[in-house]
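F.,

This is the one I mentioned.
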């Protein structure tokens, strides 16, 4: 669980390192948020609490240098805190055992010995640190509800065949989930992120919105008046960078 690199604020992929590759700090955040998501699934967390845990993690490291604290300890505390914020309470023992199994596949649950209690105390103390650093502002507006609304609206616009033959909905949800690997939730408004992942999903499958050429404004601006094409392009670019890291990191 060694922490490396330097501070990177704003989530997302702030910029490439040498030879156009993501900076080391972004790779660390990618790996740790992947841990949050996988641990969250094994703990039975719903989508919103997992998203909150990722957001807490990214926001914490906007304020604190990455090499100051073990990022995986911050991640476990973020999971624990997110469960409280979203009213899906988790036991620290379960978080510890799932985390231990993640790093040591096939291992048995930890005994309730001094090592276990030290780790539990570390998670609780780190939770208090996270709350202080974030000034107790740990309630976030996520894009999920907006994406659900936009998908329902778009489904009514498209003909039934176009909607049923392409997994636009499934792809948009997957893109939204994956965006939390890079912390785009801190860089872009929730509505903009929801529209952008839907825009990219439509582009992937070549689905066109009916009568868009004759419309006064593009369909995506109907959903969000202040959204612009450059904002969409920035979000899509960051998502592509996240997927490029996914192919590089084992």
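My design for it:
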């Amino acid at each position: 669980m060694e922490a490396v690199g330097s501070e990177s604020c704003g989530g997302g992929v702030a910029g490439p390192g040498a030879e156009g590759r993501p900076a080391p700090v972004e790779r660390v955040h990618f790996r740790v948020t992947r841990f949050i998501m996988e641990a969250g699934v094994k703990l039975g967390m719903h989508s919103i609490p997992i998203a909150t845990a990722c957001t807490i993690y990214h926001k914490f490291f906007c304020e604190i240098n990455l090499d100051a604290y073990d990022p995986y300890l911050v991640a476990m505390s973020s999971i624990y805190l997110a469960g409280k914020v979203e009213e899906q309470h988790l036991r620290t023992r379960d978080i510890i055992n799932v985390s231990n199994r993640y790093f040591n596949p096939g291992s048995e649950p930890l005994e309730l010995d001094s090592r276990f209690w030290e780790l539990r105390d570390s998670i609780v103390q780190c939770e208090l640190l996270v709350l202080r650093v974030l000034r107790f502002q740990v309630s976030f507006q996520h894009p999920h509800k907006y994406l659900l609304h936009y998908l329902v609206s778009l489904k009514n616009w498209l003909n039934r065949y176009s909607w049923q033959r392409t997994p636009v909905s499934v792809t948009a949800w997957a893109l939204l989930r994956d965006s939390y690997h890079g912390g785009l939730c801190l860089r872009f408004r929730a509505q903009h992120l929801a529209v952008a992942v839907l825009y990219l999903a439509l582009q992937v499958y070549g689905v066109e919105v009916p009568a868009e050429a004759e419309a006064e404004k593009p369909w995506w601006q109907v959903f969000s008046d202040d959204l612009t094409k450059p904002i969409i392009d920035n979000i899509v670019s960051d998502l592509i960078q996240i997927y490029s890291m996914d192919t590089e990191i084992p």
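The chain has twelve helices and no strands.

Talk soon.
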